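tool=predict chain=A
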Amino acid sequence: MRQLAIKIKTVSSVILSTKGNTDVMTATYDYFSGNILRGILAGRYIKKADLGKKAHEDRDFVELFFQKLRFVDAYPVNKTTGCRSMVMPLSLQKIKDGNSIIDLLQQDSEANYKSLRGFGSIEKGKIYSTEIKKNITLHMSRSDNGSQDDKERLAGRSLKGGIYNYESIAPGQSFEGYIFGSQEALEKLTAVLQEKSWLAHVGRSQYTQYGSCSIELGRIEEVPLVPREEGRCVCLRLDTPLLLAGLTSDALKGLEEFARAMNERCQREAFHIQSGKRKIFSKAEKADSFVGVWGMKRTRLNALAAGTIFILQKDEDWNDEDWQHLTRLCYEGIGLRTEEGYGQVRVWRCPRLEYAKTPDDAKPPRRTIKSGKVAKLAQEIVEKKMREAVRLFAAEDVEQARKYFPQDANHLFARLDSMLDEKSNYCRSNMQNNLAAEKGGESTPLTRMLRKVEVNRTGLGELLENTPLDKMPYNKCDWQSVLSPKIHEALADIDDKLSLDELKNNDKLFYEYWHWFFRNGRKAEKLERWWDDE
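tool=predict ok
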């Protein structure tokens, strides 16, 4: 078994339409399927061999594209490793905030771990995630295209306001797939294709602004051989989806075809698929495709997703001959439509892995807020969060201070609340001046009540008259932990470096705390009196 690498680089945006599109949004796949690769090469072959519309009558064409070769999906190339990515095995899980990876084949799931999805590349025990950049473009609908008047085409816009969106793979991204087959078949293919590189147009709207790709063929090489496993079990991974026959979507029944194929090749009933807990990790999906020559979609089939993990067991230890049969079957594929790359299987070694952060994972540097208007809005957001926290502190302090409340606490707190001036920037000094005028001496009823009520072991009169703002009850908390990290980031981003100390020592916070302390105090006193009356 030999292989021929095929590399694709997007020159313009490319739309590889997915199933389930709506009228407004057309989504795209993240990779070039084997069916698309076969279409690219078949079109090139027909052009070079001058087969025209009678390609299906050419024996070599039919043998190469429908029998002898396997056109396997072109997955994105990882920028860190420079290798073709793979669909992450479904048995892998990653901790939410960290680099730890566990394989459910070897241990049970743990808290704070979630499934690892998407594409990635493994090198030296580390998993490097692969990101596919995409664009979304808005277009105007031409609903009268092809009609006699063609008013919308002449106007260059939609007269009825119709719009739709295309999601596309961004230009400048690389993908790599493979063609597997015999040396003879691959040489026959490359001989007709002639050039090793050319420009092709792929996917939807490929003759307008989308679909331009550069194609480059590699050299014909031996397929990579995996060293033989010791023991009787070998763990396998679906590199591409496995199409299932009939209406079944049962993973075990679908994977048993691999064991049957091995039994036929080795001419003995020695292989079977393990079932039970932590033996098979799979996901069912639907597979469909569009055939450009027909102008219609193929029948949708049930499939097992790429990344499916299962274990093949042999009744005795593996030998070299059986291992060669296994290797060949992995590259030939199992299930339906293997010539399109479906049913490709690879050996999975279950190594100890950790997640490696790539440059794409790094957070972009935060930008300083230089706009005065934006800085003002950021400050207002922070102040609002602090006022919300202070209201809670006031309610909690009232509960602790209730035992010190005088008999006429409702009147006292209403009187003190009226001395606060919400609109004034000198709320604290106004309170001090009003108290000095109202007290009238050290032995008046107001003075005695202010001395009797304690908040955090300090008299109410002392707090309102003499205590500095930074020593107020609400400032005894750790504001760094009370406010969320995002609030601290907002403070750091403001260009004039507005500090937390400035915000917690202003008169607005003083008003907010004492207004809600007096208000909650009046409610508590009324509630207590109601219970006494009952």
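The longest strand covers residues 212-222. The chain has a mean pLDDT of 85.
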